[in-house]
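Exercise 7. Given the encoded structure of a 309-residue chain, write a plausible sequence.
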């Protein structure tokens, strides 16, 4: 392995692992890609790097400028890493509805934090919209670049390489890809590559059962950070997925705990949702089929909450 010139060159090329102990007999093979191997412990390092790089190219972000974003944590932490390495100021709008560990992680990289209270209501459409509006107001200040992740198509391309890695690691055998939907950029980017190689690859999108916006048009409060924003993400279009699977917060947390105890994979909540959905699909496909999903981030980002207490 070559020595990276800086931390940013360490992004990507993550491992893939086969699940063994939680997969029922005569079910399809499930492979998980360990995106927590990225520098901040999340797949979002890929998209943050892409958004900043594209903004630098066309001078939306100038030297010495400020970056602003609304985020539940992982995107903000990844942006904080990029900004720390490149020397930009970062302002983050977040909420106490999200993991305290993620908020502290952003602070550790030097992000200036604005915390919007959730009033104990969890992750809701109203909360997300309030965070967005606060970030919009900050973005009006001179020298500020708003990455605006829900509307920024730049970060879709940040996941093309992830799709290429999946295709290469499986030797081109991906019968199904399963993934949660937040901004929709990652499922869109990865699916673009997998479908390019094999249009017959089935894609299953995952959303919170308590807030099934994509499948039923209903919004509600849930506890799976990073996904289920309460309204249809602007980057989403129905043709991305062949089917939408709903997973409850309880199911996601229970699967995260099972992954840790039975597979030795210390997973976060959205990773639990991914695998819970993949297991449902594995029972429907032939035993020689291959399903791929992602370990979005690590359980280390959730130690202050109730996931592992």
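Solution.
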């Amino acid at each position: 392995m070559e020595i990276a010139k800086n931390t940013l060159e360490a992004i990507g090329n993550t491992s893939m692992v086969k699940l063994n102990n939680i997969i029922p007999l005569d079910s399809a093979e499930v492979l998980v890609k360990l995106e927590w191997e990225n520098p901040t412990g999340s797949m979002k390092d890929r998209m943050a790097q892409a958004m900043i790089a594209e903004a630098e190219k066309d001078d939306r972000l100038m030297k010495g400028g400020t970056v602003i974003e609304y985020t539940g944590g992982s995107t903000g932490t990844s942006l904080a890493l990029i900004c720390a390495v490149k020397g930009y100021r970062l302002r983050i709008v977040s909420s106490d509805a999200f993991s305290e560990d993620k908020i502290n992680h952003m602070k550790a990289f030097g992000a200036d934090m604005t915390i919007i209270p959730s009033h104990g209501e969890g992750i809701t459409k109203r909360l997300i919209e309030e965070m967005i509006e606060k970030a919009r107001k900050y973005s009006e200040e001179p020298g500020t670049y708003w990455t605006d992740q829900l509307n920024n198509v730049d970060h879709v391309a940040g996941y093309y390489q992830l799709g290429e890695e999946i295709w290469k690691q499986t030797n081109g055998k991906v019968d199904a890809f399963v993934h949660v939907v937040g901004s929709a950029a990652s499922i869109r980017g990865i699916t673009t590559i997998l479908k390019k190689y094999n249009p017959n690859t089935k894609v299953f999108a995952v959303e919170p059962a308590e807030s099934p916006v994509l499948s039923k048009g209903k919004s509600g409060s849930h506890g799976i950070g990073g996904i289920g924003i309460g309204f249809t993400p602007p980057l989403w279009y129905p043709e991305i997925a062949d089917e939408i699977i709903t997973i409850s917060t309880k199911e996601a947390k229970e699967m995260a705990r099972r992954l840790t105890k039975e597979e030795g994979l210390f997973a976060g909540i959205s990773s639990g949702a991914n695998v819970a959905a993949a297991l449902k699909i594995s029972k429907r496909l032939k035993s020689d089929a291959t399903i791929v999903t992602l370990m979005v981030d690590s359980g280390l980002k959730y130690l202050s909450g109730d996931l592992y207490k």
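Remark. The mean pLDDT is 95. Students should compare their own answers with the one above.
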